[in-house]
Amino acid sequence: MTATQPVAVITGASSGIGAATARSLAAAGYRVALLARRLDRITALAAELGDGALAIEADVTDRDALVAAVARVQAELGGTDVLVNNAGVMLLGPFSAEQRNDYRQMVEVNLLGAITTTEVFLNQLKDGGGDIVNISSVAGRTARAGNGVYAATKWGMNGWSESLRQELLPDVRVTLIEPGIVATELSTHITHEETRQGVQQAYDVAEVTPDDVAEIIAFTLARPRRLAINEVLLRPAGQA
Ligand SMILES: NC(=O)c1ccc[n+]([C@@H]2O[C@H](COP(=O)([O-])OP(=O)(O)OC[C@H]3O[C@@H](n4cnc5c(N)ncnc54)[C@H](OP(=O)(O)O)[C@@H]3O)[C@@H](O)[C@H]2O)c1
C-alpha cells in the first residue's frame, strides 16, 4: 500500500458484480472500501484482498450509516477517488398492491440509495477529481411487462447520471453501466414466486459473469482523464 494508490468505494460489494468489481479494482492497484449489509461477506472479501481493503457495514437506505462510512474512508484510506453505485435489488412481478413493499424497497435502494451515497461522498470525489460509476441495466433502456418499477429505478438512474455528468465535468467523470443478464444471485430475492421461477431459469443458464462486467468497469476507469466513457450497454450475445 502506498499513499499514491487510488481509493474506490463500492456499494453492494458482498456479492455478484460488486464483489467482482472490488477484486478487479484491487488487482488494478486500488485500495477498496467494501460497503454492504452482510458484514461477514465483506469482511471475508477484505481479508482476501488484503492490504488497504476495508469492510464497512452500511445499508444504502440509511444515510447516517453512509455518513459514518465517509468518515471511516477519510480516516483510514485518506479519501475517495472512485464511487461505484452498485447496490441494487430486482424484485420483479406483475404490478399489484401485493408487491408494494418491493416497489418501495427498489426505489429506496436502487435509486435513492445511489443518490444518497453520491451526495455524502461528493466532497471527497471532487477533491482532486474522481469517478462515479452507476450500475444501471438494460432495464434502464427498455421496459417490459413485469419489470416496471425496477425499470423505473434504472431509467431514473440514467436521467440522474446524465444531469450529474454535465454538472460535475470535467473533474468528476460519470459512467453508466447497463448490463443485461449476468450470473449473480440478483434473481433469488424475487418475492413473487411464479416470477422468480421463470426469471431463475434464465439466470441458471446465464453466461456473462460478474468478472466480465468488472473488467469493463476497470477498463473504463483506466482511460486517460481527458477521455470519459459515459455509457456502456452490454448484453449476453444471445439476449434479445
Ligand atoms: N445480475 C444482472 O443480471 C444485472 C443486470 C443489470 C443490472 N444489474 C445491477 O447490478 C447491481 C448488482 O447486482 P448483482 O447482479 O451483482 O446482484 P447481487 O449479487 O444480488 O448483488 C446485490 C448487492 O446489493 C447489495 N444490497 C442490496 N440491498 C442493499 C442495501 N439496502 N444496502 C446496501 N447494499 C445492498 C447486496 O448486499 P447485502 O445484501 O449484503 O447488503 C449485494 O451486495 C444491481 O444494481 C443490479 O440492479 C444486475
Automatic annotation (TrEMBL):
Family classification: Belongs to the short-chain dehydrogenases/reductases (SDR) family.
Keywords: NADP, Oxidoreductase
Lineage: Bacteria, Bacillati, Actinomycetota, Actinomycetes, Propionibacteriales
MF-aspect GO terms: oxidoreductase activity, acting on the CH-OH group of donors, NAD or NADP as acceptor
Protein name per the record: NADP-dependent 3-hydroxy acid dehydrogenase YdfG
Top-level lineage group: Bacteria
The keyword Ubl conjugation belongs to this UniProt entry's keyword annotation: no
Organism: Friedmanniella luteola
Domain Ketoreductase: 6-185
Alphabetized Pfam families for the sequence: adh_short
PROSITE patterns found in the cross-reference section: ADH_SHORT (PS00061)
Coiled coil, from the record: none
InterPro entries per record: KR_dom (IPR057326), NAD(P)-bd_dom_sf (IPR036291), Sc_DH/Rdtase_CS (IPR020904), SDR_fam (IPR002347)
Keyword NADP: yes
